[in-house]
Amino acid sequence: MKVDVILGLQWGDEGKGKIVDFLAPQYDLVARFQGGPNAGHTLKFDNKQFVLHTIPSGIFRPGLINLIGNGVVIDPITLEREATTLDDAGIDYVSRLLISKKAHLILPSHRYLDAASELSKGKNKIGSTLKGIGPAYMDKTGRNGLRAGDIFSADFKDKYEILKKKHIDLLKSFPAVDFDLETEEKKWFSSIEFLKRFRFVNGEYYINEQLNQGKKILAEGAQGSMLDIDFGTYPFVTSSNTLTSGVCIGLGIAPSSIGDVIGITKAYCTRVGSGPFPTELDNEQGEWLRQKGGEFGATTGRARRCGWIDLVQLKYTIMLNGVTKLVMTKIDVLQGLEQIEVCDAYNIEGKVTTEIPYEINDVAIAPITKTYSGWQSSTAGIKEYEQLPQQAAAYIDTLEESLGIKFAMISTGPERESLIVK
Ligand code: GDP
Ligand code: IMO
Ligand code: MG
């Protein structure tokens, strides 16, 4: 068997949680392979809404195993809080949530450092979610990190103190920020105890055994391809590999074990935080999309920046990920527009290009767009392709032709069932 992958092709928040939740019953196991509580994956069903940050989006499907892979960074406090919302909803999850021993831990002082580092950057700040992601991955690659499996070792507290001291020393070189380390530490150690109820596994052995037994596995990406540490709009990115290649390292599977790569794009585009966004509509039209699409962060509540779909950007991320199936979300949001624009090239200081330039942060990019007719009748909740207004179908045809892949699914609302499966 192979591991199928779901990931975002833009700057995050493409609707990964919804699609994972929908497809989950076709699988035996859902695994997160990177990122941490910077993610906010929204699921809506039975008139209820949940936002998951660390727990994979297969958790609401009875009997399905959910693995937090080694590539993830875990904040025990956030994980306990998320688990509590599952308790409140009466979900039986304890025996179905597995944690890879090699996943790294986010300490309170990582969050402290994140805040101080962002403040020191002034107007050049990344716009981080301040969940401690960057500092935790820095300690991982710097070979200083604490791993989930360490919580069972006798000298865990000593290891913690050594790392914390490093952080306190580092903080002296940053501007002061308000952070109640003592209170956060107390919560953290209490949440570490909470975590001990879950099954800690050697994720790489576990997942390969599952594959050998013929189990069906879905890897759930967080963030989006344009936030990838290597190929995103660096330095305005996150600190992990968000691409298909990250699945191998974040779970311990071989490249030959990758099956379908399901890439998700919104019918338009959003970004939250700083950094370049060539098709951004920093105007009334962008505000219209923000309000109609409810474009406010699932993790931080920040307003998301909105703009037109960008085919230069999508072709780049389809290439990097080896996408085999495309999914579009939020087509319903576009209803009511007279015209819709699609960017298919960039004009950079008089030169036309269809590639993402290395200098993306430093040059003025004028998107070259084609205009398509909008539609006025609602597509919200539609489940049949034939029910889409003719202009919406024409918009989809145009994108498919240009991207060279057909859409396998088109999402028409936040609810689990609001989906066209082609
Ligand atoms: P994720 O991080 O990729 O899982 O996406 P988020 O949950 O951060 O953001 C996606 C938002 O769009 C959530 O509020 C979803 O409930 C919502 N959503 C997902 N699909 C659709 C759709 O097709 N139409 C509409 N209107 N909302 C959607
Ligand atoms: P999901 O999984 C959208 C953005 C932040 C910031 C940059 C770095 O819900 O799609 P970090 O906290 O990683 O240091 O922030 O990345 N970012 C996201 N944007 N969706 C996300 O996750 C994101 N996770 C991080 O806004 O610009
Ligand atoms: Mg999100």
Explain the overall architecture:
By secondary structure, the chain is of the alpha/beta class. The chain has three domains: 161 residues, Adenylosuccinate Synthetase, Chain A, domain 1; 92 residues, Adenylosuccinate Synthetase, subunit A, domain 2; 157 residues, Alpha-Beta Complex (Adenylosuccinate Synthetase, Chain A, domain 3). The protein contains eleven helices and 20 strands. The strands form five sheets. The chain has a ten-stranded mixed β-sheet with strand order 9-7-5-2-10-1-11-15-19-20, with helices on both faces. Strands 14, 16, 17 and 18 form a four-stranded mixed β-sheet that branches. α2 packs across α6, α3 packs across α4 and α3 runs parallel beside α5. The mean pLDDT is 97. The structure holds guanosine-5'-diphosphate, 6-O-phosphoryl inosine monophosphate and magnesium ion. The site of guanosine-5'-diphosphate has 22 residues, from α1 and β3.
Number of helices: 11
Secondary structure: helix percent: 25-40%
Strand order of the largest sheet: 9-7-5-2-10-1-11-15-19-20
Overall domain count: 3
Structural class, by secondary structure, is alpha/beta
Reported CATH architecture of the largest domain? 3-Layer(aba) Sandwich
CATH superfamily of the largest domain: Adenylosuccinate Synthetase, subunit A, domain 1
Low-confidence stretches: none
